[in-house]
Design a protein that fits this description.
about 140 residues; single chain; about 15% strand; 2 domains; Arc Repressor Mutant, subunit A
Length: about 140
Amino acid sequence: MGASVEQALEQLKSSGVRMTPQRHAILGFLMNSMTHPTADEIYKALSPDFPSMSVATIYNNLRLFVEAGLVRELTYGDDSSRFDANLSDHYHAICKVCGEIVDFDYPPLMEVERAASRETGFRVEGHRMEIYGVCTSCRAAVPHS
C-alpha cells in the first residue's frame, strides 16, 4: 500500500498541489482503509494527531483528491458520502442494516460497458453497481434473517 500512497502524492505534486502533512495523512488513511469512511470518520481518526485540523479541511482535501482522480466519492441516498481510494474496477455490497460496504470483483461486468458502447455509440467512462442485503454480522444478531 505504501507505494501507491507515494505514487498518488507524486501525481498530486506534478499537478501543482502542495503536499501538506494533513493531505498525506488523509490520503494514507483512505488508501489503507477498507471501510469506505465518511469525512467525519476520517476526522475522528486523524484529529488526535492533527488537533488543529477541522472537518472542513478534510472535506476540502477530499474534494481535491476526487477532482484529481485519486479518490471516488460514493453517495448513497440520504447517507453522507463515503470515500474510496480503491480505483480498480470493483463493486460494492452494502448492508441495509448497519451500512457496511464490502468490495467485490466481478470482471464479466466489464462486458456491459462494451455492450453499452456498441449499442449507443457512447464513449463509456464507467459504471457503478451496488448489491444490497444484510451482512453476516447483522444476520447473526437477528435470528431467522
